[in-house]
Design a protein that fits this description.
The complex is a heterodimer of chains A (292) and B (393). Chain A is mainly alpha-helical and 292 residues long. In chain A, 74% of the residues lie in helices and 0% in strands. In chain B, strands 6-7-8-3-9-10 form a six-stranded mixed beta sheet, with helices on both faces. Chain B has a five-stranded antiparallel beta sheet with strand order 13-12-11-14-20. A five-stranded antiparallel beta sheet of chain B has the order 15-19-16-17-18, with no helix packed on it. In chain B, strand 4 and strand 5 form a beta hairpin. Classes of the chains: A mainly alpha (292), B alpha+beta (393).
């Protein structure tokens, strides 16, 4: 009993620095942001005295539900597309001989070596009315000459998928690499078609990788602000743009905070649900030894 | 007669390596047939071509009169037990066993009844709801067997199914496999590098080496009448002597010269001719060892030597007798232990004798065979966790 209590104590001691770090630099700021959401704004860009519900209540303005709805569907579509592209890529890469696998992995990682902003501006150049892609599509009669490829939700979606795809591929690949492909043969041997074996054996086998990929794409996508700002237009604004606008243009911090609260809750809700589900499953199989 | 399962002139190459080289094989219905050979001999490739995971470059696979060469694995009436079992980790024992029937979209009631029957067969009823990671190696093995058998395959393929088990468990599973074969009565194709497994289970064995079949026969035929020096060396222990045919005595026996030996008479069923260079293979247990010169006779060979080493193993004693350049391994069974009898020991001069019928004249093997044969078979395999056999000094 005594030894276990002592171990508890040392564990606490070891955890303390990182805990302090998190509390001071993460938990407190978040709480401050939450608190500001309940403060009135003053006309000079500062925070007024007293407490009010009015800022949160003002989010009922019909503008916001539309933006929140757009943020949700762009993020969800981005996540789904990233998973749809990432899973086959990982399935393919994990079965390559090790050396070629490294090459493909490098190809996935290479974009990170260039500045994120530069890459988005590159897309802007490509999609520009005089840009390569636009010209090519017009030449192939796939697109009207006066249609715009930029400044709409489609452009935002395209660049979002481009940006977040590696964050989906890497965790799924990590899971697929540990997957035992003899299981696919076993399923085929027992009468399953290739598709059935993929669906009922491979996908469950890499489910943790898929869950990680989902979180790694969906959460940053919800908060995206640079991409819709650069390649999007007034009708493809996301909640991140509104927060930036309230902070930098309107200098209305309570309003920005209120939007942030909504966003944070939107992220926390699925995350908590997912974690609870996972914990329930893990408790079910404590001795279960599994990769990733 | 066309067999139930036919491999017809199969060739399969991986790059420049001919994994399977013009193999033809005919297996009877209900037979327990083993493919035995060192790793890399092509036995697993042959099995994978029957399962449908590999396509032969040349040749056909015929099952029950139907050419299945181009049929995908999920539409072949064969099922495999994999070396690693390949149980689905996210499904429990019951769901693993039910997988084949679920895929075939059989009614739920029927699936449940069949799975219950299988669980009873492998005595795993109380573990039905457990995930594979929570059951032991032997239990996984049994689940893999049930999962394969529930589809009622025409042929059950077993790919080194016991390699991952420890010795004790392996011996028990051997007996269980044999019982299951008797019970379900379907054809078993068993791939192994372990001669002990192959010998104890099989109706017939095909010994493979370098992508080719060296010999097909019953376990006794393969052990007692090896057709090649590879087979003689791979199955059990043997002594090889380099000799030359000096004279044909009659249709069945020849006189040989072996350096340092008096004239040797040997059974000649291979129709070797005078002047042929041969290896003579004689199993250690076929020798008799004695201090006094044994009774000679037309068909008994004897040679004098000195005991260099003795290993007492309880059930038998292993002697190493020096005769010129040869160190002959002799296994002697003790029929009766007599306290007053002076046992043969180091430095004793002894007579070693054997019947002409116990020697086999074989073609000389190639150099690559020789390298292979130098190693005990267990070390040729690439599978970890194997105990060398007690009779290998």
């Amino acid at each position: 009993m005594k030894t276990s209590r002592r171990r508890r104590y040392t564990e606490w001691l070891v955890t303390l620095p990182s805990l302090a770090w998190l509390v001071v630099l993460f938990v407190l700021p978040t709480l401050i942001v939450f608190a500001i959401a309940f403060k009135p704004a003053n006309p000079y860009g500062g925070i007024g005295a007293g407490w009010t519900w009015s800022t949160l209540a003002s989010l009922g303005n019909p503008n916001y539900p539309a933006i929140i709805w757009r943020t949700l569907w762009i993020s969800t579509t981005t996540t789904v597309l990233c998973l749809l592209l990432g899973i086959p890529m990982a399935y393919f890469m994990a079965q390559l001989p090790p050396r070629r696998r490294q090459v493909f992995l490098l190809l996935v990682i290479i974009p990170f070596w260039t500045s994120f902003l530069v890459r988005i501006f590159a897309w802007k150049v490509l999609l520009h009315p005089d840009g390569l892609i636009k010209q090519a599509l017009v030449a192939l009669h796939l697109v009207d000459a006066d249609a715009s490829l930029l400044y709409n939700a489609g452009a935002v979606l395209l660049v979002m998928v481009y940006t977040y795809l590696p964050f989906a591929v890497l965790p799924i690949y990590a899971a697929a690499e540990k997957f035992e492909f003899a299981l696919i043969e076993a399923a085929r041997d027992l009468g399953a078609s290739s598709w059935k074996a993929f669906r009922s054996i491979f996908l469950p086998g890499i489910r943790r990788g898929i869950l990680t990929a989902f979180l790694m794409v969906f959460i940053p996508a919800l908060g995206a602000y640079v991409i819709p700002d650069i390649v999007g237009g007034p009708h493809s604004e996301m909640i991140g743009n509104k927060i930036a606008q309230r902070t930098f243009v309107d200098r209305n911090l309570p309003h920005a905070s209120a939007l942030s609260v909504i966003l944070t809750l939107a992220v926390l809700a699925p995350l908590t649900a997912g974690m609870l589900m996972q914990r329930k499953k893990d408790r079910h199989a404590v001795l279960h030894q599994e990769g990733l | 007669m066309a067999g139930f399962l036919e491999f017809d002139d199969i060739t399969k190459a991986f790059g420049s390596l001919r994994a399977v080289d013009c193999v033809s094989l005919s297996i009877r219905k209900g037979e327990f047939f083993s493919l035995l050979g060192p790793s890399g001999c092509g036995k697993t490739t042959l099995l994978r071509m029957l399962a449908g995971f590999e396509q032969p470059d040349k040749g056909r696979v015929i099952l029950d009169g139907q050419d299945i060469t181009d049929i995908p694995p999920n539409r072949r009436k064969v099922n495999t037990i994999f070396q690693s079992y390949a149980l689905f980790p996210h499904l429990n024992v019951r769901e693993n066993i039910a997988f084949g029937l679920r895929v075939a979209k059989r009614p739920r009631k029927e699936v449940d009844a069949e799975v219950d029957r299988m669980l009873a067969l492998i005595q795993m009823e109380e573990h039905a709801e457990k995930k594979p990671s929570l059951i032991s190696g032997g239990q996984k093995q049994r689940v893999a067997i049930a999962r394969a058998l529930i589809n009622k395959p025409r042929v059950l393929l077993l790919d080194e199914p016991l390699a991952a088990l420890d010795l004790k468990l392996r011996q028990r599973m051997l007996i269980e496999l044999d019982l299951i074969h008797d019970e379900v009565g379907i054809t078993f194709l068993y791939v192994t590098h372990d001669q002990g497994e192959a010998m104890s289970l099989s109706d017939r064995i095909a010994v493979m080496n370098n992508g080719r079949i060296e010999q097909i026969g019953t376990p006794a035929e393969i052990y007692e009448m090896p057709r090649s020096s590879f087979v003689a060396a791979f199955i059990g222990d043997t002594n090889f002597f380099e000799g030359q045919v000096a004279e044909l005595i009659d249709t069945e026996y020849s006189r040989l010269t072996i350096d340092g030996f008096p004239d040797v008479v040997c059974f000649n069923d291979r129709k070797m001719n005078t002047g042929n260079l041969v290896y003579v293979s004689i199993r250690p247990e076929k020798f008799r060892i004695s201090r006094e010169q044994p009774q000679g006779g037309g068909r008994v060979n004897q040679v004098r030597g000195v005991v260099e080493d003795v290993i007492y193993l309880g059930a038998q004693t292993k002697y190493w007798v020096r005769v010129q350049q040869y160190l002959i391994a002799v296994n002697q069974q003790h029929s009766r232990f007599l306290l007053d009898q002076k046992p043969i020991t180091w430095k004793d001069e002894v007579w070693v004798s054997w019947f002409a019928d116990d020697g086999f004249m074989l073609d000389r093997y190639s150099e690559t065979d020789e390298q292979l044969i130098q190693l005990p078979p267990e070390e040729v395999g690439d599978d970890p966790g194997q105990e060398p056999q007690a009779d290998e000094a």
